[in-house]
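Hey, weird one. I pasted the RING-type domain-containing protein sequence into the form twice and got a warning about non-standard characters only the second time. First submission, copied straight from the form history:
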Amino acid sequence: MCGLFLEPAFFLVHRRIEHARLHEKHRGHEKMHAYMLLILLTSVVVAQVVLVQWKKRHFRSYQRVSMVGMWLIPLGISVHSHWWRFVFVWSIFTLCTLVVVSWALQKPIAGTTPRWVYKWFYVVHMQSYALGVAGYIVVMLTLLGVNLVFRAKPQTWMDVGLLLLFYGLYYGLLGRDISEIITDRMACTIGYYTTTGVPVRQLETNVCAVCGNKIHVLDNEEAIVEKTFKLPCGHMYPWVNGQLCRSALPYRS
């Protein structure tokens, strides 16, 4: 009988000794964790200040470095984690974009190239916008419990919604950054304007200052994809993706 009572007491003492050893081993870790948190917060604040100043003072280098990082880092993470679906979609997007970019960097540039460049990135923008909206709707329906009507697990619907949101945001931002850089390069190559703002060619009002082609649809009520915008000087420019062609903006008559 004594052995039956001594065995639980022995295990109780052993646990207390092990617990005391654990506390002794991790003594002072609270201070270390506090230092780690302080270093983390300081790093975040300093990095944010550095990024803001970098973007403000050297926008072109900031834009290019951020674009390359956003383009390549997710690919490396996906390959390491074996997320082959993202790798496949990324490869198709990159291949099509590189073909369009190669057209835009040709010298001399073809007259139809700017229109194709704008159309490609307009399609990317619209598809990204649609994916983002669809993902947001799926997430909201999941939070409202609509998935229970279809006897589906909330985790499945939430995964689909977040996946669509990610694809929409990622390719939307990446396409925007690439299009801004490429349009600047095309503007310098085409030469319809100079950095001083003095035009080197005289254009008719119904000719695009970016590609030199005639604008076929002058009435926006009849436009389907590409609308036009008339400046006070009378020149007409394509209204692509909700904004004027960036290459045309520096030109003034």
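That's the output from the first submission. The warning seems to come from a hidden character in my clipboard, not from the data itself. Confidence is low (pLDDT under 50) at residues 1-6, 240-253.
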